[in-house]
C-alpha cells in the first residue's frame, strides 16, 4: 500500500511539472506555504491515509508515516508545524550530474511552480580544486574555495568580476607610442613598492559589479598624480564618479571601455 501511494505521487508530480529530464522525487520541501497548518484536524500520529492536504494536483501527508525511508511524501511544513523543527535554509550552489554541470533554481511564475535547470559551469568547482591540490605543493601553489564565489556561475564571474570591454575597431587600429631609450641604462631590477612606497593605491574589491574599467582608471590616475608630485598631491579619485557620470558609450556595472574612461578624465577631471 505504501509503495503504491509513493508511485502514484511520483507519477502525479512528474505529470504536473512536465519536466522529463528531472528525476522524480517525493520532496516538497522547497514549496513554501501552510499545508499541515491549514488542516482543521492538524497533524496525525501513526499512519492515516486521510491525514493529507492537496499540493500540486496531488496530496501530501501530515501523519508520522510520511517520514519513512525511501518514500517521503510529507507536506513542506510537516517538520516545522507538526514536529516543531525548523529546516535550515537551502544552500544555493551548483550541483553536478555525471559530467554535466547544472545550476539549479526554482521559481514561481504566474502562481505555478517551475523547476528550471540551466547548463552553466560553476565558478568554483570542488573537483578542479581537488585535482590542482593532488600531489601536495607540486605546482608551487594550492587552490582553495572562496566563499564569496561559492554557488556563483562562471558567466557571472566573467561579467561581474571583470568588466573591461575590448576597444572599438578605430582604437585598435591606432599606432602605439614608441619610446626611445637606451636599454643599457635600465636598472637590473625595479620594485614600485619600494620606489613609490605609500604613493600607490591598494588593490580594491569591486564586488559583484563589472567595474574593473572604472577602478583601474581611477587608481592609475591617482597613482600618477602622487608619483609626479612626489606625494604632494596624493589624491584618491572616485571610481564611483566614473560609474555614475561616464555613461556615454559605457555600461556601468555591465562593463566599460578604458579609452572612454581616460577621455572623460581628460575632459572633466
TrEMBL record:
The record's annotation in SMART domains points to: SO
Q: Does the keyword Signal apply?
A: yes
Q: Is this entry keyworded Disulfide bond?
A: yes
Hey, what's the signal peptide range on this chain?
1-24
- One of its Pfam families is Peptidase_C1
Limits of the SMB domain: 40-88
GO biological process entries: proteolysis
Q: What UniProt keywords apply to this chain's record, in alphabetical order?
A: Disulfide bond, Signal
Recorded GO terms, molecular function? cysteine-type peptidase activity
What residues form the membrane-spanning segments? none
Report the Gene3D superfamilies cross-referenced here: Cysteine proteinases
Question: Which SUPFAM superfamilies does the record associate with it?
Answer: Cysteine proteinases
The UniProt entry's sequence similarity note says:
Belongs to the peptidase C1 family.
What PANTHER family does the record point to? CYSTEINE PROTEASE FAMILY C1-RELATED
User: What protein name does the entry list?
Assistant: SMB domain-containing protein
What's the source species for this entry?
Answer: Timema douglasi (Walking stick)
